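Fill in residues.
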C-alpha cells in the first residue's frame, strides 16, 4: 500500500488565492463551475465520506467527478478511521485532484457523534496520525480545515495547528468560530492572526487560509489587515454575493 515512501509532495501554490469553501449539499459540480466562471481561483468539493469512497459507495464516488475547468480543485474528506482514509485516498489518486482537505470542523450532530468533523478537534493526536499516514501513501498536498474549538471553554486551535504542523501539513484553513457557535455570532479573526503569527514565528512555510464572515470588499480588506494572511476562503459570502471574487480582484488591481 505504501506509495510515497519518501514523503515527496507535489507542488501547489496556496498563496495569493481566493478559495470557494466546501459546503455540504451546495458545492456540487455545477456550483463549482459557476464559481470558477465568477472568479474563484480554487474550488473544493462538498465534504465526502472517506468510508463511502473506501467502500465504493455510488453516492460518494459520484461526488468525486468534476469538470476540467475547475482546476485547481481540492477534495474534502470526512471520517476518523485511518485505514478508511488511506483506502479512500488510494482511489482518489485516479481522479486528478490538486490537493486533499481533511474536514476537522463540520458542525453536523451526526458526524460529531461519529467522531468526525469538529469532533476531531478533541483529538489533535488523531489529526496528526491521519495527516502522517496520508502523506506516506500520496504525493498530493494534505491540508486541514479547522474551527477554533468545541466551545469557548475549549479553544485549542493552536494545539491542533501544532499537531498538524508536526505531521507536515501543507496548509491550514481556519474558520474562527467554535463548533457550539455553529454560524452564529461573529468570526474572531484574531484567532486566525494568532495561528499565522505562530507559523511566522517558527519561520514555517505553511499557508494559513482565512475563512469566516468575508461578505464584502471591506471585510476582505479588514481581515487581510488583521490576519496578515494572503489567501482567503469564501462560503456564505459567495452565496450572498456571486460577484465577490471579481470585486475583490478589481480592488486589488486598483491598490
Amino acid at each position: 500500500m505504501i506509495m510515497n515512501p519518501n514523503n515527496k509532495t507535489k507542488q501547489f501554490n496556496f498563496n495569493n488565492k481566493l478559495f470557494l469553501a466546501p459546503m455540504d449539499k451546495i458545492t456540487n459540480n455545477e456550483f463549482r463551475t459557476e464559481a470558477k466562471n465568477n472568479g474563484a481561483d480554487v474550488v473544493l468539493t462538498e465534504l465526502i465520506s472517506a468510508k463511502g469512497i473506501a467502500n465504493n459507495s455510488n453516492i460518494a464516488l459520484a461526488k468525486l467527478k468534476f469538470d476540467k475547468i475547475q482546476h485547481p480543485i481540492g477534495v474534502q474528506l470526512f471520517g476518523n478511521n485511518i485505514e478508511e482514509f488511506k483506502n479512500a485516498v488510494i482511489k482518489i489518486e485516479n481522479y486528478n485532484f490538486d490537493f486533499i482537505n481533511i474536514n476537522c470542523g463540520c458542525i453536523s450532530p451526526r458526524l460529531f457523534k461519529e467522531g468526525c468533523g469538529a469532533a476531531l478537534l478533541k483529538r489533535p493526536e488523531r489529526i496528526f496520525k491521519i495527516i502522517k499516514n496520508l502523506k506516506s501513501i500520496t504525493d498530493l498536498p494534505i491540508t486541514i480545515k479547522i474551527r477554533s474549538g468545541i466551545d469557548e471553554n475549549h479553544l485549542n486551535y493552536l494545539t491542533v495547528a501544532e499537531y498538524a504542523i508536526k505531521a507536515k501539513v501543507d496548509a491550514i484553513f481556519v474558520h474562527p468560530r467554535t463548533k457550539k457557535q455553529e454560524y452564529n455570532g461573529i468570526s474572531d479573526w484574531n484567532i486566525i492572526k494568532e495561528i499565522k503569527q505562530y507559523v511566522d514565528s517558527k519561520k514555517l512555510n505553511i499557508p494559513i487560509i482565512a475563512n469566516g464572515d468575508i461578505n464584502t470588499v471591506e471585510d476582505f480588506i479588514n481581515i487581510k489587515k488583521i490576519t496578515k494572511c494572503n489567501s482567503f476562503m469564501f462560503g456564505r459570502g459567495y452565496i450572498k454575493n456571486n460577484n465577490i471574487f471579481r470585486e475583490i480582484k478589481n480592488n486589488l488591481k486598483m491598490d
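The CA atoms of residues 158 and 194 lie 8 Å apart.
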